[in-house]
Each structure stands twice: as structure tokens, then as C-alpha cells.
Design brief:
By secondary structure, this protein is of the alpha+beta class. The chain contains ten helices and eight strands.
């Protein structure tokens, strides 16, 4: 099953508290108090007399049996997670972001990514190569990256990748940022730019001037409009004019999940 990296701003909304019935809570509290009483009494007694008595053990077992019976009678099916209620399809304009594959490909996969997301790294290293070999390199699919940073460091990393893209080195910078475990740090961006033989002065000016910040913020707004709350998330569909209209995939799903959506999009007139 695929994994998804939740943004900090949405993490609280994703939490669910279990329902606790008052009767269950009351019996559980009594059992805990009884155990506490036994432990306290045993600690105060002489070593010869310490420990649990037969009557105390029987009382505890009785309480536990009653709690189990109550749980069996009152336990309800789990409430579906919020992810289950998210839209299954989405539509967005195809503008901006790094791109792989033919501009004339009839199908498009748009990824919303975060450079601090471990599951984005997993997708990049294990799933994207299969998609690229079978669909991108053969001209059937175009792959586009959109940014959905959840933290300040990943926002700076997204800017660094786009600034490198101004000099035709988006993908080398993109891959370099994902190649190291841990948080991307701003002090390392210039070193990576030097390693890629970029014009470091132009790269610095781009970063310090926030040239691509509005574009990244626009990507984040698009993700919000699609009710996408974590990375990686994808829209897989046919290119219709300037828009991609297709299925939403949430998480670093296996290759066969992407292939099924690609084939469905191919069959869509």
C-alpha cells in the first residue's frame, strides 16, 4: 500500500480520536484503580506478605472479563479515514513545473512533491523508473512536477530546483536534492549549483530574489483546490487543451496502480 507524507499544516485535521463509551471508561478505570491499590499495598507490606491475594486476583479477572464482554457488544466498525472521502478525479491547468517526456504526449502525470518527503524519494527511486521506461520514454506519457512544500526548508529546495531549471538543469538539481537523506539545507544549494557547473551568481540572485516563490505558492493553491493534503499525490489523465483531466492517486503506490490509471486514460476518448 502506498504511503503519503502529510503536511504539518494539515496534520491536526488528519487526526481522529477514538470514541470512548462512558461505561467502558468506568469499568476500565475501576480495574486500573484496583491494580494500583494492589501494587501500593504490596509495596507497603513486608516481603513475606507482599504480592497479590487470591481474592484480589479474582476481582481483577472478573473486571477484565466484564470489560472484554462490553467491548465485544459495543465496538463499532472503524470510521473511514478522511482520505477515503477525497475526490477520485481532478482537473488542473498544465503550466509550470519541470517536465519529462514528449510535449506531444497525449497523457500526463502531474506529481505534487515535497523535497523533505521520504515517500516522494521512494517514488522517485523505485516507481518512476518503471513508468519512465514503459510510458515516458516511448512518448505515451509526459511527467510534470509541481511543488507542494510543507516546510520552510522544502520551500527553499523547490526554489533551488526551479532556479537551476532557469539554466536547463532542473532535473539534475531535483535528483540531487532527493539523493541525500535528511532535510535539504540552504547552505548546500550553492554547492550543488557549483557541482552542476551553473552560473552561481545568477543562481544566487534567483534564490535570494524569490523569483519562483509565487509559482510555487500557486502550485500549493492548486493542490488545495483538488483537496490534496499530502505528498506524493498525482493526477493521471488525458491532456485536453491546456488542462489535465484524470484520476487522483495518493501516495507512493505500486507501479501497477499507475499503469491501471494510464490504461484507463488511454481508453478515454
Amino acid at each position: 500500500m502506498g504511503e503519503i507524507h502529510k503536511r504539518r499544516s494539515n496534520s491536526e485535521a488528519m487526526l481522529r480520536r477514538p470514541v470512548i463509551y462512558s461505561a467502558r471508561r468506568s469499568r476500565l478505570a475501576r480495574a486500573v484503580l484496583l491494580l494500583f491499590s494492589v501494587i501500593s499495598t504490596g509495596a507497603a507490606q513486608d516481603a513475606k506478605d507482599s504480592g497479590i491475594t487470591r481474592q484480589q486476583a479474582d476481582d481483577i479477572l472478573k473486571e477484565l472479563r466484564e470489560i472484554r464482554q462490553l467491548l465485544q457488544r459495543t465496538t463499532k466498525p472503524a470510521i473511514p479515514t478522511p482520505m477515503a472521502n477525497l475526490p477520485q478525479t481532478g482537473k488542473l491547468r498544465l503550466n509550470g513545473g519541470g517536465s519529462l517526456g514528449s510535449q506531444d504526449a497525449p497523457l500526463v502525470i502531474v506529481e505534487f512533491t515535497d523535497y523533505e518527503c521520504p515517500y516522494c524519494r521512494q517514488f522517485l527511486g523505485t516507481i518512476l523508473p518503471e513508468i519512465r521506461k514503459k510510458y515516458i520514454d516511448t512518448g505515451r506519457v509526459r511527467f510534470v512536477v509541481r511543488d507542494m512544500p510543507g516546510h520552510a526548508e522544502s520551500m527553499h529546495a523547490a526554489e533551488a530546483a526551479r532556479c537551476a531549471g532557469d539554466q536547463g538543469q532542473f532535473w539534475p538539481m531535483h535528483d540531487a536534492l532527493f539523493s541525500e537523506l535528511g532535510k535539504p539545507e540552504a547552505k548546500d544549494f550553492v554547492k550543488r549549483a557549483e557541482a552542476l557547473k551553473l552560473d552561481v551568481g545568477a543562481f544566487r540572485n534567483c534564490l535570494e530574489g524569490g523569483k519562483h516563490k509565487l509559482e510555487i505558492q500557486n502550485d500549493m493553491q492548486v493542490a488545495t483546490s483538488l483537496q490534496i493534503m499530502g505528498t506524493p499525490s498525482f493526477v493521471v489523465g488525458r491532456l485536453k487543451g491546456e488542462e489535465v483531466d484524470g484520476a487522483i492517486i495518493v501516495g507512493a503506490q505500486p507501479f501497477n496502480v499507475f499503469e491501471a490509471k494510464i490504461k484507463a486514460a488511454e481508453a478515454d476518448p
